[in-house]
Amino acid sequence: MSKKVINAALLGLGTVGTGVYKVLRQQRDEMEQKIGAVVEIKKILVRNLKKAAAKIDDPSVLTNNWKEIVEDDSIDLVIEVMGGIEPARTWILEAFQAGKHVVTANKDLVASYGSELLDSAAEYRRDFLFEASVAGGIPIIRPLKQCLAGNHISEVMGIVNGTTNFILTKMTQEGMEFAEALALATKLGYAEADPTADIQGLDAGRKMAIMASIAFNSRVTFQDVSTEGITQISSKDIRYAKELGCVIKLLGVARNTDTGIEVRVQPMLIPDTHPLATVNDSFNAVFVHGDAVDDAMFYGRGAGELPTASAIVGDVFDIVRNILADATGRIGCTCYKQLPIKDPDDMESRFFLRLHVDDRPGVLASIASVLGNNNVSIAQMIQKQKDGDLAEIVVVTSGVREGDFNDAMLIIEGMNVVHKVSSVIRVYGE
Amino acid sequence: MSKKVINAALLGLGTVGTGVYKVLRQQRDEMEQKIGAVVEIKKILVRNLKKAAAKIDDPSVLTNNWKEIVEDDSIDLVIEVMGGIEPARTWILEAFQAGKHVVTANKDLVASYGSELLDSAAEYRRDFLFEASVAGGIPIIRPLKQCLAGNHISEVMGIVNGTTNFILTKMTQEGMEFAEALALATKLGYAEADPTADIQGLDAGRKMAIMASIAFNSRVTFQDVSTEGITQISSKDIRYAKELGCVIKLLGVARNTDTGIEVRVQPMLIPDTHPLATVNDSFNAVFVHGDAVDDAMFYGRGAGELPTASAIVGDVFDIVRNILADATGRIGCTCYKQLPIKDPDDMESRFFLRLHVDDRPGVLASIASVLGNNNVSIAQMIQKQKDGDLAEIVVVTSGVREGDFNDAMLIIEGMNVVHKVSSVIRVYGE
């Protein structure tokens, strides 16, 4: 009996590309029994042929010419692990046109152009899968699209960036300041040379856009996500959070409310009894709340060579099964609604607020009155130790409209008795 | 455009059946956009027509005659939520023969007859899905078969029985004894009138057999699982475990080792820093270790009307998508290996051992020597407080062959100085 072979091309041979190459090799002996065919990497597109040759068994598969791949009719599927918007976007569109299926790990691309790419895939009845673009090795897209399809999902939230979670863990467990923890993350390879996308919450924002789109069946793009990074968090904030029974995590929170979808990535205080509070180091975890399943959580490695490759190869195997069943394009875009995106001013949040103020009678009352006049109700107000001549006060609000809170803060920042607004951090929950 | 309808029949209208009915109704308005067709419950098989009529909108769909369902060619799929081996087994086989797809939540059946049923489904190219049979609403079977298909999975372990987890949580957090906690579980509806299958670990054993089969691609049946319940666990054991930095959980542990598959359900001490240690009350969680993904965890409600229905409706929607893509039977049985099952005596375990012995010199030494002579090495030996005239000692062993440990225990039980072997509990980990 002749062996059924599915030919694939790999675009990129960096960390993730190398991982995919390795995992496919690890599966070589059982693929045929497991999925009915053998996946062979026929071409690998790289920039530097010489450098790439050192990484693989058979350098003859290397090319630096996209045409050699897209024009090769024996190649059934393309695995895009280059990253970046272009040329990835154009090449994926060309791949669909040429009748090829595509697997990608490219969150930047899916978060901004997912709709265009899924439409194109549907037009040519090809598969376009991107499990690896969210939370690395953790299965989350297929569970949302299939296992939990019987739910109206009202919330998806979690820790979806390993770099910032590593930094916050070090700040919490070892009392480091942000700069020191970032330096350690860089040294250990958890942070990239330019860490902006991670520490500013952009990377997490892209993942939240993708998950919100799938969970709520309505397109959410990266532009719709409110993002705030962790660069302003101090070890003092973390200590005060601890006194309140909380830890500080960079949380992605997507909610489907009656007045629209809200998606945000912000550092937040979360009770230390919440399962996410113990998700530490570079681990990721995603919480899902649905009307049938109630709470479910998915936990694992959000990045890394082999965990990311695990998700990619899962997608590749699914496409092979679709090809063999003649069922490609079986599950396409599931964004059949057009729900409004809520104005960030209309989102409701609780806030942790730390201020340095004049240490004299009446100051607390005047701040409380500004908050009250702007519909910001106070859940807790604590006078902390003196800081030189100044008093340090901490305010925790109830759930308030962000626009109202911002109005109040404009006034508070301008008050003579207020020397410094030292921290404004959201608090997760109602 | 005419609406595409897929007709389903529900076998059983107990807790889970009612849940499926509700969830399908909750999804009615969006099903067509989501999956391309509307699922309608055309028949519901019940024993008591009158009692069932009170539970649903349209009692005309009720029947107590299986023939009316199996002989109705307009019914595409059967949802079996009656439980028990017969007549469920025979009817599912007849459903395949009649060209119908089947979704079940029946772990007893899948754990013992999964192979026969999957073979029959394959013969007629029908789908047979059973996500709800393991860990209720938590997606685990589809993640194992698809998302993590690029892995060699070496271990699947977790808390897969909510009743016992509730009981152990109460014993741990509130110092209750087993009988008291069981009574509370019964009162709150977490335990059935006859709790045997739960508290003896049989229910968890069935789920572990199903998960091990899928994770290791080799058939494991319920008969292959070593099970032990939690009826012998005392609050004293839990207190001593706490002193050792551990909690006691009923764990299902399946391992694929070089010398065979081992699957067991046993109460075990697990370090309180392990993510499973904080899975409390009736929640379930499953840990998976794969060579690519590393550690992943799936957490949620392991039982209950709507969470279980969530898993069933996810399966139903998947079958609808297969029907529309003409790809039914797309993923069938994945047990393509025939790995040996390890003899329980050859499994390796660590043990926590509590003994009441004569309070005089030389006793510890004589027990230590019996253990040592049988290749049982001691990691920790602690003399606890006196209990009347007797001394209480606690021994924690290193990893030892269970057969060797049992030999040692036979001798220890026969020693004159040993008055009672009060507890023998395994310790998770190497």
Automatic annotation (TrEMBL), chains A, B:
First-level EC class: oxidoreductase
Positions of L-homoserine binding: E192
Listed cofactors: a metal cation
Catalytic activity, as annotated: L-homoserine + NADP(+) = L-aspartate 4-semialdehyde + NADPH + H(+)
One MF annotation (Gene Ontology) recorded for this entry: homoserine dehydrogenase activity
Binding site for NADP(+): L11, G12, L13, G14, T15, V16, G17, T18
EC number(s) on file: 1.1.1.3
Active site: K207 (proton donor)
Pathway: Amino-acid biosynthesis; L-threonine biosynthesis; L-threonine from L-aspartate: step 3/5; Amino-acid biosynthesis; L-methionine biosynthesis via de novo pathway; L-homoserine from L-aspartate: step 3/3
Family assignment from sequence similarity: Belongs to the homoserine dehydrogenase family.
Record-listed NADPH binding positions: K107
Protein's recorded name: Homoserine dehydrogenase
One Gene Ontology biological process: threonine biosynthetic process
SUPFAM superfamilies attached to this UniProt entry: ACT-like (SSF55021), Glyceraldehyde-3-phosphate dehydrogenase-like, C-terminal domain (SSF55347), NAD(P)-binding Rossmann-fold domains (SSF51735)
ACT domain boundaries: 352-426
Alphabetically ordered keywords of this record: Amino-acid biosynthesis, Methionine biosynthesis, NADP, Oxidoreductase, Sodium, Threonine biosynthesis
